[in-house]
Amino acid sequence: MELHNIEILIEKYFSGETSIAEEKELKTYFSSSNVAPHLENYRAIFGYFTQAKQEQFTKTVPLQPRKRNYVAWISVAASVAVLAGTYFFMNQEPTHQQDLGTFDDPEIAFAETQKALQMVSENVNEGVKSIEYVHEYNQTTKTIFK
């Protein structure tokens, strides 16, 4: 009857349905010397667990890693680059004044403003169309995951 019980436990083990006590029973059976000949190939599987339990990590672990001062040097170099860039940017003479789109005629200014606002409106509407897909996706996920 014990052999029949071991075969049932092996089936449960490979189905993932065994308890810890049943797995211990399998390990003790396969570590003993009287294993049935047709179950001999399972001895290596359960023998591995007892062997793996005895393995230990033998490599030494360094407690204090070597310190590298790359971070300090990078921060110093970044500070110098920012200071040099600020100095050269602030000490430049303006070469020429740019026309920033000012208009003397109010009608031309109004027409240009309408063109700019139309362009912004088209881009915003295009963005709103892409948001509609996100809204549809959210509705679908709410329906599925109730």
General description of the model:
The protein has 146 residues and is mainly alpha-helical. Among the domains are: 2-54, no CATH class; 103-146. The protein is 67% helix and 0% strand. The protein has helices at residues 2-15, 20-31, 43-54, 70-90, 106-144. α1 (2-15) packs across α2 (20-31) and α2 (20-31) packs across α3. The radius of gyration is 38 Å and the shape is elongated. The two termini are 50 Å apart. The model has no long low-confidence stretch (mean pLDDT 81).
Topology:
Elements: H1 2-15, H2 20-31, H3 43-54, H4 70-90, H5 106-144
Helix pairs in contact: 1-2, 2-3
Globally, the shape reads elongated
Query: How would you state the average pLDDT, rounded?
Result: 81
Helix content: 55-70%
The secondary-structure class comes to mainly alpha
Strand content: under 5%
Number of separate strands? 0
Distinctive features:
elongated, single chain, 146 residues
Short description:
67% of the residues lie in helices and 0% in strands. It has 146 residues and is mainly alpha-helical.
